[in-house]
Specification:
231 residues, alpha+beta, 6-stranded antiparallel β-sheet, 3-stranded mixed β-sheet
Length: 231
Amino acid sequence: MNIRVVSLVLIILVFALVSGVLSYSVSSGIPLKEAYNNGKITVIQETAAGTVPHQVMITNNASKAVKVKKGDVLASSVSQNLVLAEDKIIASNSNGTVKAYSLYTTPRAVVGTKLLPVNNTNNAVNQVISSSNPSDSQSAMNAQLEIWIITSENNLNPYTGEPVAVVESNNMTWSQFRQDIANAKSDVMSSFNVSDDTIKNLNQTQSNTGQTQSWINNIINQIKKSLGIGQ
């Protein structure tokens, strides 16, 4: 069969796949970042520093539902950056609370701050979130510590910002907190098969969303090359 015919068939299949994915995405809700960019939602920090997990209030003023995904990052210049810990659909003209973990140790979370949806976090943090149960206090605390270990690239300082607030709000002793951090570090090393020296590499991994997009782009580029398009 002629290579151009084969390539044309592949193009049709790829576009059918992409169209199907986009159709499903739209039917189940507008992505959080897209809705924010359209000026249709607000995201407000609901919980005080030291809360694990945190909660945010998402108000959806769009005519369509908004899709919230685990791993979506919410940023702020004055409050703690958060990463969403659960999937949820926020119906049109309604609001809902969503659980989230602190992404970094500083600054402290500030109640009432407006947060900005920016992107999706890296693979390692996504895996920690997916393996956690944010409704269980112990599971949530361990996930929070693991996230800090990963994003700090194994340089977690417990005597600053959110970690201090966690100790204070949970009436923990510092010896217990340090032991919890050590246990979480061991869990990270075991789960990702990394050493003390290579934990830092986990913070460099690409998000699943980025990997999927790169895979699709590579296929399209190969098809274009075989057809002589864009040469």
